[in-house]
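Translate sequence into structure tokens.
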Amino acid sequence: MTDTVDALLAEGRALGLDPGAVRALLAHRLACAPTWLLAHGREPLAPGALSACREGLAKLAKGAPLGQLLGVVGFAGLTLRVTEATLLPRPDTEVLLEGLLRRLPPGPLRVLDLGTGSGALALALKAARPELTVFASDISPDALAVARDNAARLSLAVTFFESDWYAALPSSLFPLDAIVANPPYIAPGDPELAPSVARFEPALALFAGDQGFDALERVLTGARSRLRPRGWLGLEHGHRQAVTLAARLQRAGYDELALERDTGGRPRATFARQPHG
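Result follows.
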């Protein structure tokens, strides 16, 4: 029969898709546990359910990220809702989170996550350190709606702002103990970017001018007047940008620069400290 779970699993294999991803997608589309698929593989599916599953398989075959199709992604132990308006949180970004948590001293500090997207960094910071006062911003109202929904669902108190980096943030937020950002840092036309990422994830969160440094420069320059003395700035960046970014940070007056590497051993995040006042 061509209208069963077993038939859909066979279609996934024929498309060359990862079997685990196919099972996760089918379980999501059929609103069932993955174990149900094994026990009911030969049962006919309703036409609507069959159509929804085949649509998902087709998108997966075209390179759509599984997390986007499922609508949820795990990050630092949290389950976050994601949409086409948000960049998918990735394990590499946990390096930025962990690096900041190691550097923050104890106490009720004030931290800002710029370009928060789904809220991943801000919410993970609040979950790890409940005593922190965490603020987060994004230029996209659609992304902010997702971030606020994640915060409410996880019962994590983060204050969100719609802002183009610092432009619309109230002066009462400053000075801050730390600013962290995973800004767009990919140069348009970068040959290393997977075509599926460029096709399915928001360009606003991916691409930046000045060879990918435009947003990084805006964040680091603006942080100088908004961090407390000895406050920390943490930036995620491309693995080929570390040396140039370090030079820009030093030129802007930061010190105590430190590089963090991702799970693949590539340069992924740089921390720098505001000098004494």
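Note: The chain has two domains: 5-62, 72-273.
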